[in-house]
Design a protein that fits this description.
- The structure is a single chain.
- The chain is built from 10 helices and 14 strands.
- With about 300 residues, it is an alpha/beta fold.
- The strands form 4 sheets. Strands 4-3-5-14-6 form a 5-stranded mixed β-sheet. Strands 11-8-12-7-13 form a 5-stranded mixed β-sheet. It has a two-stranded antiparallel ribbon with strand order 1-2.
- Strand 1 and strand 2 form a beta hairpin.
- Helix 1 crosses helix 3, helix 1 packs across helix 4 and helix 2 packs across helix 3.
- The chain starts with 11 loop residues before the first helix and ends in a 7-residue tail after the last helix.
Length: about 300
């Protein structure tokens, strides 16, 4: 009689070694994080490869990367490890229920303005919670990258995410006083084409900005930027440094305006378009104690302690 193939049940610790080694692109970095020998991590991944009979990682001078099979297993492992953490939290007392690791993704700009100032309070409230911050302007994939909560200004229509509005804001044009003193202040949107402008590289070399004319009708002006940066934080810093005129979210510019480092430009022509900042999670994680706690915390931070207009 032909024997049925033996099913392989992986050790959750080995799955964690795989996930963290991929996140950090290094066995040694994962070992330092968990305070174990590098050989412990490497052997754990070896057991997974032997058990599944496939190669999971590629090793190179640039670090570790996943094979297609490794990427698939890592995605499933993240979900399983999150569920195991939730089970552990549900069996503990109410205070320590908010426990485990939460991966929070946002742009560097929003992270610095909304998250970092309140981390100490969050850690004091939930001492068993470990937070991993991923600051990047690109839209992170919640599932494949194991993101628990992402802060985004666009969501779209999808059943794959659950979005909760944190607040609303506008985007306005700003420049440093020194730049305006040297180059003059534009009186009409059309004059922007004679100025140095700063934009995001994702927008390409030509960027169209929206305004409203004196009669309140929509007006658009296309500018070719003198300087483009790969993150909104770099755009912000460049404007403060006097590189030109550029678009910023008004809550993120508020402190620099209050302290005289930035001046709003063409305020009477602002489009008044309202944008929304969302906390986004996947449907499978929205009920996790740590996810709910962090989103509730961010709701309070954005309403009471950050310059976002509260949602009405």
């Amino acid at each position: 009689m032909k024997k049925e193939p033996r099913s392989f049940l992986p050790d959750p610790a080995d799955l964690r070694w795989l996930v963290r080694s991929l996140d950090l692109r290094s066995f040694s970095a994962a070992a330092r994080e968990m305070d174990v020998a590098v050989s412990v991590v490497a052997r754990g991944v070896d057991r997974l490869e032997a058990g599944y009979g496939v190669r999971l990682l590629r090793r190179s001078t640039h670090g570790l990367s996943a094979t297609p099979e490794g990427a698939e297993l890592a995605q499933e492992a993240r979900a399983l490890l999150a569920q195991l953490e939730d089970i552990g939290a549900s069996l503990s007392d109410q205070r320590s229920r908010v426990a485990g690791t939460l991966r929070l993704a946002s742009s560097q700009e929003i992270c610095e303005a909304l998250v970092l100032p309140h981390l100490a309070d969050l850690q004091a409230r939930y001492p068993a919670l470990r937070v991993e911050l991923l600051a990047d302007d690109r839209v992170a994939d919640l599932v494949t990258e194991g993101i628990d909560v992402a802060l985004r200004t666009t969501v779209g229509h999808s059943d794959l995410v659950v979005a909760r509005a944190l607040g609303r804001f506008e985007r306005r044009l700003y420049a440093a006083p020194g730049y305006l003193k040297q180059h003059g202040t534009p009186a009409e949107p059309s004059e922007l084409q004679q100025h140095h402008t700063v934009t995001h590289t994702a927008q390409g070399p030509a960027v169209t900005w929206a305004f409203r004319n004196a009669q309140g009708k929509p007006l658009e002006v296309t500018v070719r930027s003198r300087l483009a940066a790969s993150s909104s934080a770099l755009v912000h810093h460049a404007l403060v440094g006097g590189a030109g005129i550029g678009m910023l979210s008004s809550p993120l510019a508020a402190a620099d305006v209050a302290q005289g480092r930035l001046v709003e430009v063409l305020a009477p022509f602002a489009s008044r378009t309202v944008h929304t900042l969302y906390a986004v999670s996947s449907p499978g994680r929205r009920n996790a104690a740590r996810v709910k706690a962090v989103i509730d915390f961010l709701m309070k931070a954005s309403k009471d302690r950050w310059a976002l207009a509260p949602v009405r």
